[in-house]
Write a structure and sequence with these properties.
Number of strands: 8
Radius of gyration: 14 Å
Low-confidence stretches: 2-8
Order of helices and strands: EEEEHEHEEEH
Largest sheet: 4 strands, parallel
Distance between the termini: 38 Å
Shape: globular
Helix content: 10-25%
Length: 121
């Protein structure tokens, strides 16, 4: 089965850990029976990815059925992700050096959401 599903979230810039906040989510009723391709451009703190995985698992998805694909990541976020969800398969294009004090990847590409949506926080 193939499903397109969209979750819209943004990180809370006021929180110390920059935790994600959902604005919208809609999953197919039989999501628990599907293989899931989870795509996110970056993994810094892994908060957004873990939030999305928590949502999927709460709806019955086995974490072994999730393939997570991203462009940029760092060891901190990947370690955090693998600690909570060791069975999730991960494909990343580039491993960045570290997170700065704003929890951005370094060297990174800045705020991907701002670049994609043409906004500036």
């Amino acid at each position: 089965k193939q499903w397109y599903q969209r979750r819209v979230r943004e990180r809370d810039e006021e929180s110390e850990d920059k935790r994600p906040m959902f604005f919208y989510k809609k999953l197919p009723s039989d999501i628990a029976d599907c293989q899931v391709l989870l795509v996110d451009p970056m993994v810094g703190t892994a908060g957004s990815c873990i939030c999305a995985l928590d949502c999927l698992v709460q709806h019955g998805v086995d974490s072994r059925n999730v393939l997570f694909v991203n462009l940029f990541s760092c060891k901190y976020g990947l370690n955090k992700l693998q600690t909570k969800y060791p069975n999730v398969r991960v494909i990343t294009l580039n491993l960045e050096s570290y997170l700065n004090e704003k929890k951005y990847l370094v060297p990174g590409v800045g705020d991907f959401g701002d670049r994609y949506y043409g906004t500036n926080h």
